[in-house]
């Protein structure tokens, strides 16, 4: 079986009516996304919602099963991965498709086995073994890398990884573009007792997943740039030249900026992404000596450099026609 590329409108038709449906999602990122900070002119303190409240606003009948509960992470189990049991016609399916998945949160899972068997299998995958590295924390519900897991593993080994999971539906976000995906696991599952670390990734498999993730990261930066070119963002000076670049030439510009980021010891992906954004969309600012001095100061931590530049940029743009910082 291969991954099936589907449209958003096909999600309901891909749900197997005979099997139980779940949403597997990490609670803390959803809570952080839903948090509304207090504004200076607010008279009332906004309500801080926890994950069950956010989910049950869509469907109050769902059941939450916490994967970290009664494990090494029990103290923080309500911040970890939650398996939410839902009905196929639940409003939570649309909330996932139209909101959570857009933000990169979670996947839909199905199984013909019991909920307890699914929970035990998912808990056994909280840590996996990587050849040459030992035990590492693992997230099977990462929509950015799930397609790479499916493509990298041999069919039998993929069936072992999925275990009782018969069906997976997720959205892979690639910058300004995305693709919905569906994978059906036809292998029969026989429940067995497994401890964390039973699943082993080879060094070659991890290398392939890392390569896929790097390509996806670069593609997301290109898709964002193509999106801004499409809406005419580059038509203003001094980024006007970018408006006329071919996709290949724009790709080369992005790769060059990524290389420059590494040259100045900016290695974290989020910071590299911001480095590219700054030089693509705010070229007239960040090429000034004051900005370049901060960005190229390798004595400062990369996070501090990017934060300082973001602050300066926000102050300069305040009240100008350029609007808010992207």
Short summary:
This protein has 326 residues and is an alpha+beta fold.
- The rounded distance between the terminal residues' Cα atoms is 40 Å
> Helical proportion?
40-55%
**Over all CA atoms, what is the radius of gyration?**
22 Å
**Biggest sheet character:** 7 strands, antiparallel
Residue windows where pLDDT falls under 50 for at least 5 positions: none
- The secondary structure category is alpha+beta
Task: Please give the count of helices.
Answer: 14
Strand order of the largest sheet: 1-9-8-5-2-4-3
- Relative strand content: 15-25%
Mean residue pLDDT: 92
The helix/strand order is EHEHHEEHEHEEHHEEEHHHHHHH
Shape verdict: globular
Write down how many β-strands occur, each being a DSSP E stretch of 2 or more residues.
Answer: 10
Number of domains: 2
Structure characterization notes:
With 326 residues, the chain is α+β, with helices and mostly antiparallel strands. The chain has 2 domains: 4-201, no CATH class; 232-317, no CATH class. Helix content is 44%, strand content 16%. It has 14 helices and 10 strands. Strands 1-9-8-5-2-4-3 form a 7-stranded antiparallel beta sheet, with helices on both faces. Strands 7-6-10 form a 3-stranded mixed beta sheet. α8 (203-230) packs across α10 and α10 (247-263) packs across α11. The radius of gyration is 22 Å and the shape is globular. The two termini are 40 Å apart. The relative contact order is 0.10. The mean pLDDT is 92.
